[in-house]
Amino acid sequence: MKIVVLDGYTENPGDLSWEPLKQLGDLTVYDRTPVSDREEIIRRIGDAQVVFTNKTPLDRQVMEACPGLKFISVLATGYNVVDVACARERGIPVSNIPSYGTDAVGQFAIALLLEICHHIGHHDQAVKAGRWTSSPDWCFWDYPLIELAGKTMGVIGFGRIGRKTGQIAAAMGMKVLAYDRNETEEGRQLAEYTDLDTLLARSDVIALHCPLFPETEGIICRETIAKMKDGVIILNNSRGPLIVEADLAEALNAGKVYAAGLDVAREEPIPADSPLLTARNCILTPHISWAPRESRQRIMDMSAENLRAYLAGTPIHVVNG
Fold first, then answer.
1. For residue 251, what are the domain limits?
2. What crossing angle do the helices spanning 102-118 and 293-311 adopt, rounded to 10°?
């Protein structure tokens, strides 16, 4: 059994072991594969039966050029890099890694929010630059400091991660609203379900935790921002294309949106001309919500579990039927 990992570096930059996969076959791990070089993708897969990918695309041309391919596993939850319909036609199960980062991603959403509320990094640097030492007062602050207790968080997408973010927000004394097409009893115990317009109008903080579907792409845009409170805070560590970035930058610079905390971008890595890079009060991090070692270890363990289940004839976490 030949196994190829096309882009393993972000999953394992050296602090984990590939041994769980090595035990299951002849393993080749590439740190990175050029995502736009289809010929190189095909060459690296070669006659392998099993391919693991994170962001390297596997489209129809790649699959047709690699007839030995029998199983694909994505080193993530999202699987839009794989043409799952073509894989289904060819009898190739595609598995993903569900719910490995619920705690980490929920924690990170709140970290973005707390940074906006207190600008701890900025004030740390200000102190180290000597500004406190030379201050005429015993304290200073360069941004409004925000207390969250009593404010309202609206969560768009109230699955596992959305509920985790809501749970932490509630623990800080926030009221939680939720918008999701699938309401659950677990969600009702934590939040008040509303329609989208109500959530937009009532929320002081809006957190995005929904999947990227045609109906959610651009869900934050000029039209929906206009329905929000003045001075709203927007958080997104789900998918970049949920936001029309030019519209958000415009709203930040105008003050309609007080601040944004974003761990994702429409295009990644973020391009140098992104309007978000120069937008007022916009905190950007490089898609790292998912990346604590504990989360990545779960990805490694579940990837091996996916392959063992396939080899046993009972594939699990299959996303293409």
1. 102-284
2. 160
Burial of 269 (0-12, 13-18, 19+ CB in 10 A): exposed
Do 30 and 106 reside in the same domain of the chain?
Answer: no
Nearest to 268 by CA among 244, 291, 286, 293: 286
Along the chain (321 residues), what's the average pLDDT of each consecutive run of 10 residues? 97 98 98 98 98 98 98 95 98 96 98 98 98 98 98 98 98 98 97 98 98 95 98 98 98 98 98 98 98 98 98 98 87
For residue 136, what is the domain's CATH number? 3.40.50.720
CA angle 197-98-248, nearest 5°? 35
Q: Nearest to residue 166, comparing CAs of 155, 157, 156? A: 155
pLDDT of res. 321? 87
**175 and 127 in one domain?**
yes
Return the exposure string of 150-179: e unless at least 16 CB atoms fall within 10 Å of the residue's CB, then b: ebbbbbbbbbbbbbbbbebbeeeebbbbbb
Total number of domains in the chain? 2
Residues annotated as part of the active site: 239, 268, 287
